[in-house]
Request: fold
Amino acid sequence: MTRPTIRLGDTGFHVTTVQTCLQLTPIDGDFGSITENGVKAYQHDCRLTADGVVGPQTWEQLEKDFNLPPWPPANLPPIDDTLIGQICQIAMDSAIAVYSWEGRGYAPPGYTKGMAVAFSTVVRKWMTNDSSALEMAKANTHDSDVDALSWYAGYFSDYHMDNSKDGLDTLRHLFVLQMGLGMRESSGQYCCGRDMSATNVESDTAEAGLFQMSWNASNSSDEMDKLMQEYASQPPQCALKIFEDGVSCSSSDWSCYGSGDGYEYQELAKHCPQFAVETTAIGLRNIRQHWGPINRYEVEIRSEADEMFKQVQDLVTSNVPVAGTSADVKIAKSGDVGVTVNKKPV
Reply:
């Protein structure tokens, strides 16, 4: 599979990749006239057909000049059992494991451990420049209409959690918010079905899983479609057995509604909690109004969760190299990653 041909009028993360490489502002994922003209100039300099269409030859040149990661991204190998055990131990020894969430009580052991393991997977993805992980870890966009980190900026400031820069610190703080969201929406029950008092039974609107997201949220980002393809074919980590600890599921929990992608989303969100974590993380950065508890500021941000995720982050980043990571990627315990690329002037 090769990167898709994109041209004037297209949108999505492939457009963002081109804009970032060629430094075409605004970098907004919208293939407009500025992007088209920039592509034409690049093609002219590279002695390619200067038609403004990014097809196989132009992608090949961009990959060469800008050291783009492979496409489609190589699936991460599963985390080995020893590392999983260490991550789960961090979770169970953490203060957040014994915290009583407001109105919800204690989290199931599987939820605390599962969120820690899920975070470790996304950290590993981020270390390989995975586009979904990079989207989760981008700096506060200051667009509170769509970005939950922006909406909750005052709360993060109170806890001295800085989200002003791209990277692992911002990614970690997103997971702190998400951990509180899961307790609010499902009490940490990975198999939670839709709200039975609601009438949203169409495939795209039926909620499912830890964070009670529905597939219509996928309209906010192409990254969710990418994650659906990844987890429906060869998931790097589902973490189902981990999330199961302390949770019992009823037959109604497992019921899914409708058909098509929405039905598949509901199935995957319950049977592969890691998938639910990652799609929700993308949603929180792009469609925060999807969640009532977020809109009403009902989700708790806890420093104890941040401390747990920081320990996991340090453990994972010290266990390098990660399969698929370029030799040019240098990991630092501070959470910074420097990637050496050779940029060709346009």
